[in-house]
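User: Can you predict the 3D structure for this chain?
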Amino acid sequence: MKVHLLDPSRDIDPDVDDPPFAEDLAQDLELDVLWNAMGAGDSFLRRVARSVLLHPVDEDAVVRFRQQAYADVDNNLSAIRELNGIAEEALAVRRKYFFSSLNRIPRTELYYAVHTLCELANQLEQVYHWARRNRGNFSSQALRGLCDTALNELDPDYLDSMRATLDDLQFSGGILVEYGIGIGGEAHNPVLRHPKSSNKKFFDRTPLLRPFYSFTLPERDDAGARELSQVRDRALEHVATVAVACAEHVLSFFSSLKTEVGFYLAVHNLHAALNSLGAPLCHAEPCDSTSMKGLYDPCLALRARTAPVGNDVALGDSRLLVITGANGGGKTTLLRALGIAQLMMQAGMPVPADSYSAPLVGHVRTHWSREEDGELAHGKFSDELQRMESIIRALKPDDLLLCNESFASTNESEGSDILAEVTAALVNAGVRVVSVTHLSTFAEAMAQRTDLSPCFLRAQRSTGTMRSFRLEPGMPLATTFGVDIYNKVFGTQLAE
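Assistant: Here is the predicted structure, written as structure tokens:
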């Protein structure tokens, strides 16, 4: 059985390796805040949320598959939690027989597998009855498909047959093994037969009607007991291997079930946390053009415990957005919001906005300004160049690169020239670039590059020198209104 709640063609591995630059992405977008809210104190849910968000899917069909599944989850939360509880009970069986599974003696392995499967049969039966009760409440391909799989593969006849086989494999009446006799009387080619109680031919196993031979080990014949034990283990070896594989297969089903159901429960945790703050989430529409209203940074909302100011972004099919304007005006916050929303959409989640549509990308990368190397191995500007070079090597067409004050560690002229050359080359190669910058020379150079079809947003200076945190379409200015902050800190009235 396969779960297929996150992808119609495969189950998800939550322990897959992180993609390149995952630590930088998490640090720059402050994703720990998001993951903590999704986990809501449950480390397993947090781990699943982290894995899924760090591996965005770029297939429209898979994104919509997840969106529809989450809508079902949101409408049938008690049923989903019941299913999660069944999976947790099943996985507790593994812990119960854990030490038996480590033993490589066939009879012990068989004991582990049979007793594990006997208990898991109860959870499989619960899944079957859960599917019968709830299938009619679901409309998504994901949850209807899971129900259909359970109803087709876990019907009562199958489970009765499974339990009967497991009862036979406990060999409560002893084991029956057929051996050939080799050179020197050595036993070889063991064949494990059905237990005696399962043999149908009564007369064939009645000693009165055919020759009957037996032997009894002397009470202190330790060598004979060891040999007989080895004979038994050789006979049980193959069936033990198969039984262990079956037990692990069923456990892997419940592990995948807990993982994939867990992701949707983590999404619900985040949804509930943001709703309690009055911060909206909306359905994301994957499409060829970018347009969003009321976009905000959910991590800022979770930290501040209030709904932040939202912003509108309309790029059409442009691949380049340059964000300039007032210091402290919300530029970096919007940049984070854009990156987080992209990851959330491509995880199949609702996104933090009033409305949201954007193209799917391959990967989201970040190039943030960093503090200077404390060990003096190299300077800040050198570090920026090396990180950018590593990122460029990994970038592919339709990836998204978010730049925050890139190359501001050198002088205005050189930093602008380098950033302009890198940005133009990436956009021409098909990469989508969003750049927050104070380098006015760079911003002006991009305004002249009509071949790049750039878009511009500008953080506003509001009346009374207070920031509105609203960004509006606008060409870059020569000032970032830093004097406003100076006047606020020093209590002066210095003019811009």
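The mean pLDDT is 88. The chain has 16 helices and twelve strands.
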